[in-house]
């Protein structure tokens, strides 16, 4: 199963700092392959180094692509961190 | 090997701020416990040995991982989760599958020694990140370098130097010091410690105190900033370490060292004596702190309680807000450690020259006159209430007082008190204990508050005069503008008259009045301040003994007369001249 999701990052710190760390931690819970695309750049969503290379800020347009049996759940959870304005808000939603 | 360039000045001087763990000043040469020079050999690998190389790499990763986990735990225990978080980031780099498989793929392709390949891959990332427009990402370079360096050390089996090799007097610089390190050292040759991690109760701190040498811990990057034999200054009073100090800095510290040593002798004599004048008038001599970790210094300098706890430092340099529990623990810890004395907790004083990274504060033309301090808190009752709840909960365990900053009139004071009342009622409903008689005060730092202090005094239990802002507002002098620094005169008659008004209005309503700005620690003016009738002075801890010495050498009766005379003078210069002359009469050898 391949799930693709386009979205605009709402988190104030973009995909840096704690949001990036949380993103990678969540991504690594799933078996599916996770890729993030920003423009032409494509990185592995399970790699903190990859995500830092992406330098995605608040307002960046990105695509999450997940491939594998648990792709749907993975995308659903990952999208939440990017759409929460702050890490605290994300924690509350959990 | 790359070096982090942050906080490097033109003169090559690097100033690092850490935690003061043992007092004193040392100027000397650095002896890093690890040899920092790592040479990475470019070695060819035979095809048959590639697998062995990969195993070697994985072993080094595993060892690095357990090292980082151990440090993580240690820091979390000693300094709290906040400080430990950075090592969580280190672990993530270490566990990054993509990075590691890139290394293994390149190793198979190039057939070069793994340390060489690894560093090439890591440098590629470092290069990209250091060019980033984003400050956060640029800062991560030092985290990645740090992890990379650890992995390299484990790959190369870098030698750990031992302290028994220390043949000359030197400042020991280490990541951390363990009892096994210090057990073998030649004690006479160790003249100070500077470490990356550790707290006031760490082995390094305890060892330094027993050796009576200065120590600064928690410097984070001292090991990566220093080289063998670098000139280094360890300032255990302020918690600073300066690497490659300029000639000017060295001169400054030589004087400071002399002054400190002379002064330490006095200190011992004065510590347990009251701040009482020759004719028996005693005042409360307290100290100002920024973090609970400053409390030991307050006690060591013989201050009677804390007259100003600047809580905003807990909010600074972080992306999130401190939770109620985190604040509660900090306030409770501080209250317990200063007991039986009290702490005046100033509520969040953001703005002016202190900004928080959590908020996008709009650009202001006049930030000191802008959206700040109590104005900000009243607009953000969610943040304000969290802090008040934490203070109230902590008040059950020790003597806390609440002080609102930057009150400019009675409405603000009433609004703040109304919010406090709400929070108290919430706690009562939940049967959470707190000190129901907690004293609430206003910081008087705006001229309008000073001039209406008769009205304000009816709503509070105390005043504390914040002179830094009061002076800049009263004299219309931006205190951060160097061009007009000459106009910033604490001794200006206008300032003295404002203080007199505040003190008289407070006493008319039978409340106490203190001073917590820098002026309270200006020993030239101590006599005048005493004479104006202040009940409390709160200064930075290291100044407390100096102020005490003056109070103990003068008569309150004389101080009253000097203050009265000062109020009749027409310029700050005249006031200062009078103050100096009278002080010299009382203490002939004093340097002012």
Q: Span from first to last CA of chain B?
A: 49 Å
Tell me the number of strands of chain B.
Answer: 16
Please, how many helices of chain A?
4
Portion in beta strands of chain A? 25-35%
Q: How much strand content do the residues of chain B show?
A: 5-15%
Instruction: State the secondary-structure class of chain A.
Output: alpha+beta
**Fourth-tier CATH superfamily name of chain A:** HPr-like
The spatial strand order of the largest sheet of chain A comes to 1-4-2-3
Kindly report the average pLDDT value of chain B: 87
Tally of individual domains of chain B:
3
Main sheet of chain B, how many strands, which sense, barrel?
8 strands, mixed
Q: What low-confidence regions of chain B span 5 or more consecutive residues with pLDDT below 50?
A: 1-10
Percent range of helical residues of chain B: 40-55%
Descriptive notes:
Chain A has helices at residues 17-27, 48-54, 71-83, 87-93, and strands at 2-8, 33-38, 41-44, 61-67. With 94 residues, chain A is of the alpha+beta class. Chain A has a single domain (2-93), classed as Histidine-containing Protein, Chain: A (2-Layer Sandwich). Chain A has a four-stranded antiparallel beta sheet, covered by helices on one side. In chain A, α1 runs antiparallel to α3. Chain A is globular, with a radius of gyration of 12 Å. Chain B has three domains: 17-36 and 161-248, Glucose Oxidase, domain 1 (3-Layer(bba) Sandwich), CATH 3.50.30; 47-156, Enzyme I, Chain A, domain 2; 281-586, Alpha-Beta Barrel (TIM Barrel). Helix content of chain B is 47%, strand content 13%. The model of chain B is unreliable at 1-10 (pLDDT under 50). The chains are: A alpha+beta (94), B alpha/beta (592).
